[in-house]
Amino acid sequence: MKSTIITIGDEILIGQILDTNSRYISQSLNRLGVVVAERTSIGDNAEQIVSTLDRALAATDIVIITGGLGPTKDDITKHTLARYFDSELVYNEQVAEFVRELLGRRGIAFNDLNRGQAMVPACCTVLHNAHGTAPGMWFERDGKVVVSLPGVPFEMVHLMEDAVEPMLSEHFDLKAIVHRTMITSGIAESILAERIAAWEDALPKVLHLAYLPAPNVVRLRLSAYEVDGESVAQMIDEQFERLRAIIPEAVVGFEGATVEQLLHNIFISNNKTLSVAESCTGGNLAAKFTAMAGASQYFHAGVVSYSNEAKIDILGVNADDIARYGAVSESVAIQMAEGVRRVGQSDYAISTTGIAGPGGGSAAKPVGTVWIGIATPKGSFAVMKNCGTDRQQVIDRATAYAIKLLYDNL
Amino acid sequence: MKSTIITIGDEILIGQILDTNSRYISQSLNRLGVVVAERTSIGDNAEQIVSTLDRALAATDIVIITGGLGPTKDDITKHTLARYFDSELVYNEQVAEFVRELLGRRGIAFNDLNRGQAMVPACCTVLHNAHGTAPGMWFERDGKVVVSLPGVPFEMVHLMEDAVEPMLSEHFDLKAIVHRTMITSGIAESILAERIAAWEDALPKVLHLAYLPAPNVVRLRLSAYEVDGESVAQMIDEQFERLRAIIPEAVVGFEGATVEQLLHNIFISNNKTLSVAESCTGGNLAAKFTAMAGASQYFHAGVVSYSNEAKIDILGVNADDIARYGAVSESVAIQMAEGVRRVGQSDYAISTTGIAGPGGGSAAKPVGTVWIGIATPKGSFAVMKNCGTDRQQVIDRATAYAIKLLYDNL
To answer: Does residue A310 sit at the B interface (CB-CB below 8 Å)?
Structure first.
């Protein structure tokens, strides 16, 4: 079964917001077994909505639309859909009551614009939006389905989970889509492709291989569309085992297991603990770990020692060493790691100190220079990395290097 | 002048990656004065690439394509474009030399696959990619332009800046696109729309108003497409001044000025300093400030006191109070803020302590319960907020609330 995702909103076309809805819906449909043939973003423009819908319904069976359901004049999706399906808008008492109650809890009066939100096309099935004022809508025509959802991400997510996913599974006879991604590191994409060419050529026709390169990492994804899920998942596992035998030194793990997730699992299963001291990464390193549920089992403390005083007072870095070697130095990186390992009472510690830019660089230490320190029960050391020229790039790369450096030295 | 953006890659359609390229290119084209009429993401599929290109060239004058230019078999964009433009692939010595040199620096041998990357359609203008092995390509037909760029985001960004933007400005006679966004807070979207209805109805026809609601914030954007930039920018300023007179209490500022950016500017211009102590936000609060260039002028220290020991040892929180009230409590939030204000030697401090979930909740303190503490030269206090049910949502909302709470209490 094939689908099209249409996200509506001028704010997408001018780049004011990042279209995360398309990604979420893609993942959701793939899990269900629905192939996403195309994703399209268009403006709040009735003509464009109609022509895109015509095209989507000609090529695919399922169309998921988000956006343009708000109470204001720039929101035209609902009126356009009503005309598209030759249906008139009718007042839905249940929607009105719920919106009145939802607004009442926030102390907001129900007005004419909210009344407008309770008007829905007579021909659609209303999908209850428990988290907002715009209901979702489910339309059917010739066995095909068009779903319209609000653009507010968490409202869309709840409607997908609570209504759209179960209804699609019920309405269509869906097969499985299987994706599995092996993470490799240390072999450049072109060299890797040469080494695994014979394996790639011998892959069963049902499996599609994709290369996903990133700095120092190439991810290899095997995909199969609309298949029997269990037998194909097993087939993919077997192929990846053969691949592992060809490039044993390069296999880092599988997706759903980023390096920080691998560390997270190791710390929990080995009952070890971690603290981090950050200068240039400014909290990002701590945030990578604390984003994962269960981090409180091993993550003791993070210190963002941005000022020299914080390095000295909180982490016990030697003031003379800062004066002698500079805050961005091997010595300070090591002392920061050892300091936070001590004050955080943890087994392992990571530190970062560098020049994120745009200011602060010099000929000897240009923007992007980052010292990463590691402290372990066996001792401590630091490594210098050049992490690029752009502030956010430096922060992201230093964070990634630091996590990988600890992983390689556990 | 109208354009279409096409991003190619199965990894987009299955939701494995977030399509940030489309957003970047949208912003870039808008700055140049090129209207983005549609954005489309399709798979690595020759038929789909051809039909999408046909449609894009029929409707618009400029087509920007990213993705599918790698050295491996799943990358088919270049071959498809060569056939589309009836052009054969020819070996480009300059590209080959550059790739050989680039790989050499990394100690990687130049192989047949890299040689394939130096093959380019004879009819195109090659765009030098200083940061990767796949060159960009510029095609022209009947005065219309098709540009193909690699999908690796930073390679695409450099090619847009260094080649595509100046070449488009040279090739087309472009007018201006103007967007300006006012940020309001504290008035619900439907109530706001009622209050400003007369102003909205009286807007000059060239200006388009959009409402962009988010939790506790409604952004109002005025846009004008393909106009004389200077006079329209002035017109927008005048309209926003009229609007400010209607809703003076709700105007927070303008986009390009998020609340953390406003704080950033205030701290720098008033020569005040900040430290933060985080439990549930786990480094995100520090990261929001340290992401901004110049943060080192006022951001002294962040402490991610995830464990109770870290709260006690680093921040000086009273162990008895943790036992009596719990780590997620008014008393601990205040002591964390005061503690980090002291050890960070700063004028202001923010703290967060809460239950991000999915575990750790109770009937009295469900997941999402967050205490936010503020310490200032005049004293300290804490506020409790329920920040939702999903771990990342709780982290993001608590971070946003904490920043706003400090802003409101400076």
So the answer is: yes
Mutation pick from A281, A306, A352, A397 vs chain B, by most beta carbons of B within 10 Å, is A306
Q: Using CB atoms within 10 A of its CB, is residue B104 exposed (0-12), middle (13-18) or buried (19+)?
A: exposed
Residues of chain B with Cβ-Cβ distance to A162 below 8 Å are none
Summarised one tens digit per residue, pLDDT across range A111-162 is 999 999 999 999 999 999 988 899 999 999 999 999 999 999 989 999 999 9
The answer to whether residue B372 neighbours chain A at the CB level (below 8 Å) is: no
Quick: pLDDT tens for A232-271: 999 999 999 999 999 998 887 887 667 898 899 889 888 9
> Are B168 and B136 within 8 A, CB to CB?
no
Q: Does A12 touch chain B (CB under 8 A)?
A: yes
Residues of chain A predicted below pLDDT 70? 215-216, 256-257
| Chain B residue nearest residue A213, CA to CA | B152
- When CB atoms are compared, the residue of A189, A294, A299 closest to B71 is A189
Please state the CATH superfamily assignment of the domain spanning residues A2-171 in this structure: MoaB/Mog-like domain (3.40.980.10)
Residue B27 touches partner A, C-beta closer than 8 Å: yes
**Which chain B residues in 224-253 lie under 8 Å from chain A, judged by CB atoms?**
none
Q: Residue A252's pLDDT is what?
A: 77
**Domain spanning B176-254 has what CATH number?**
3.30.70.2860
In sequence order, the 6+-apart residues with CB closer than 8 A to the CB of A320 are: none
Is the distance from CB of B53 to CB of B46 less than 8 angstroms? no
Nearest to B146 by CA among B78, B89, B98, B74: B78
**Per-residue 3-state assignment (H helix, E strand, C coil) for chain B:** CEEEEEEECHHHHCCCCCCHHHHHHHHHHHHHCCEEEEEEEECCCHHHHHHHHHHHHHHCCEEEEECCCCCCCCCCHHHHHHHHCCCCEEECHHHHHHHHHHHHHCCCCCCHHHHHHCEEECCCEEECCCCCCCCEEEEEECCEEEEEECCCHHHHHHHHHHHHHHHHHHHCCCCEEEEEEEEEECCCHHHHHHHCHHHHHCCCCCCEEEEEEECCEEEEEEEEEEECHHHHHHHHHHHHHHHHHHCHHHEEEECCCCHHHHHHHHHHHHCCCEEEEECCCCCHHHHHHHCCCCHHHCEEEEEEECCHHHHHHCCCCCHHHHHHHCCCCHHHHHHHHHHHHHHCCCCEEEEEEECCCCCCCCCCCCCCEEEEEEEECCEEEEEEEECCCCHHHHHHHHHHHHHHHHHHCC
B278 versus B153: the higher-pLDDT residue is B278
CATH number of B259-408: 3.90.950.20
Q: Where are the domains of chain B?
A: 2-171, 176-254, 259-408
A-B Cβ pairs (cutoff 8 Å, strict): 344
A142: burial class by Cβ within 10 Å (0-12, 13-18, 19+)? exposed
- Any B CB within 8 A of A187 CB: no
Decide if B134 touches A, using CB distance below 8 A: no
